[in-house]
Design goal:
Strand content: 5-15%
Distance between the termini: 80 Å
Shape: extended
Largest sheet: 5 strands, mixed
Number of strands: 7
Strand order of the largest sheet: 4-3-2-5-6
Length: about 525
Amino acid sequence: MPPNAVSVPHLVKETGVSDVTLYKWRKEYNEKGIAVPADSSNPENWSAGDKLAVIVETMPLNEAELGEYCRSRGLYAEQIEQWKQAALTGFQKQPQAVKQNNRDHKKDQKKIKRLESELKRKEIALAETAALLVLSKKCQAIWGNRGRLISSEERQMAITLITEACTNGARKRKACELTGISLRTLQRWENNTEAKDQRGNRKTSPPNKLTEEEKSSILEVCNQEKYRSLPPKQIVPMLADEGEYIASESSFYRVLREAGQLQHRGRSSAPGKKPAKPEACTATGPNQVWSWDITYLHSTVKGCFFYLYLFMDIFSRKIVGWEVHENESSELAADILCKIKLSEQIQSGQELILHSDNGSPMKGATMLATMQKPGVVPSFSRPSVSNDNPYSEALFKTLKYTPVYPTRPFDSLEAARQWVQRFAHWYNTKHRHSALKYVTPEQRHTGQDVAILRQREKLYEDSKRKNPERWSGKTRDWTHDNIVRLNPVNETDADRKSEKENKRHKPLITVDGHRLLSLYREYIVTATLPL
């Protein structure tokens, strides 16, 4: 029975009253309008009658009584407010409801028409893609690169394949590009199907090509008892010491590969490229290291989403910028970054590291070029490793698990933007972050948290002096954390790296932010130089 959610079998054991009597009493309470929900685990699964009873019970309560009621029932005040708004919507006058339904119907019709048009366009594009895919698979085994001698039979086959692809929805120009011929060449072939290529069918081989005898000699030497367990990089020097030269190491490897004798041997695992952990980043103040990511916001159209671009400062956890769009692209991300740099007054040459995932919007050319101009250093996570971007992932969980997050999808892009705007304002100015000693991100970003934490520490020390019996040890730690790290190197990785460097007899090099910035600028300049 409310306010304590206790199961009927438990009450039977405690009170000795039969379960039939308890169920009868609960039915009587329901008929009187008193909320006795059958499912106390999740309030969202309560029936409409239970929710309405909660609304009626909480109407005369003040703020303090409402808070006590919500805590005793396992509810949030925001949930009761949402239930109240849903009930008021159902009590609208009939003309108003009809007008609203008509407006919604017109909007749905426009959306359906737009989606049908888009679907038709995508079907045409899909048909063309499928036709070009079939064409590429068929012509891949027929002819090679452009400029090769093409016989009359191959020309006729090319005409047939391109005609078939155009019939299935492909454009003739695209089909010609895929097959490696120009549109004029196809027209010339169609006008004169009997013409032959006037070029001679001459085949030449390079003068330094190994002969079959030399290849057999390489295989014979490699399979001798003396060399059969050695790689070519050891066989060639040993032959040189004996005064014999057959071929280079690369020729040895190539001949063994052609003969199928170049396989991985031994207990060691086959070599493979493993993504390196991103460089550790350290922030000692605001606007030194930022983290950003994109998350989905559900819309009323199934399969369609709104995309939330969100940038945050890892030192203060402040949301420095955000926008919601209907698609994701590096161009939109670059525009948002430019706006944030202006709002946060990032000066040219100021050291700033921007960490993100490995998605295409993060590594697009437009985004990288935008970061290059003011000297922003990009930092990327390893593929499929969400732990490399923990601050953005934690912020997205806070966003989607807050009590005021809508239980239904967003009706429009504007509705999603309005809600995210309210959330960002609440998060920056009112939310007391547990990792920041329960100060707001705005207070941390502006430096107000130092005085706040010092005042708390003084208050606890004064309270301990007045009543020392209540403290068995030290007071709560309210010290200010000056350093925030992103992807820090643990002791095991550091020891392994140090041992590896010592084996090479090289000093351990620590790359700080300034060094990372100079290396990135040098890479950009080198990559953009003309060949």
